[in-house]
Amino acid sequence: MPEFHALVPAAGFGARMGNQLPKQYLPLAGKPMIAHALETLCACADLATVFVVLSPDDTQFHCHDWSHLGDKLQPLFCGGATRAESVSNGLAASELEPDEWVLVHDAARPCLTQAHLAKLIAELSGDAVGGILAVPVADTLKRADSRQRIECTEPREGLWQAQTPQMFRAGLLTQALRQCRSVTDEASAVEALGLQPRLVEGDSSNFKVTYPQDLLLAELLLNKNR
Ligand code: C5P
After folding, report:
1. What's the rounded Cα separation, in Å, for the pair 165 and 50?
2. Domain locations in the chain?
3. With a 6 A CB cut-off, is 187 part of the ligand 1 pocket?
4. pLDDT for 42-101, tens place per residue?
5. What is the CATH topology of the domain spanning 4-224?
6. pTM of the complete model
7. Does 216 sit in the ligand 1 pocket, CB within 6 Å?
8. Within 13 Å and on the Cβ side, how many CA atoms surround 125?
């Protein structure tokens, strides 16, 4: 049986957060934001290793004590200029076998649960391509013109919001990212190969902390689930 591993790109700066400290290290419910996802991933019995891809210039990771996560947590100081580059560099450094599964998860999605992981792995481990957690779009979608006036209403039928983890075999993902670097998620690179990753329905609690107001919501959810 091929093993499952997680890879957490955490080499970004979180410019939209407007903070000096990179987003993944902002305090959230008593610990740095990144600790929440890393602890959830390390506690998942199906995952053999949790790689975390950090910037070569990272000064924060070793300021925290990670010993409670044991050898399962493997920091790799090889992040790149974009998320795709960080994932690609991390995959190369991980030396995973081509048929091993890798679950790529944003450091900035701290509300990931064991239930999300279990559903993703159960639905995809027999899949030929792999896939992602996602949620059907709930709001009405407006397209804006250059003056920020509504140009039209876009039909939302069949539209989903991509989340992470995104789960693919290491070999396929490496090949996909080698051919397509200008993507904002792993699935887009796999799609560019002409393949159709599966959408596994998650829920909105696994949102990405992007703006300052997201921190409060994440903190409420994390404290409620303790
Ligand atoms: O900026 P955004 O929230 O889209 O980043 C998503 C994830 O990708 C974050 O965990 C961030 O740290 C990571 N990232 C990275 N390397 C970059 C840019 C972003 O690992 N160069």
Report:
1. 12
2. 4-224
3. no
4. 999 999 999 999 999 999 999 999 999 999 999 999 999 999 999 999 999 999 999 999
5. Spore Coat Polysaccharide Biosynthesis Protein SpsA; Chain A (3.90.550)
6. 0.96
7. no
8. 13
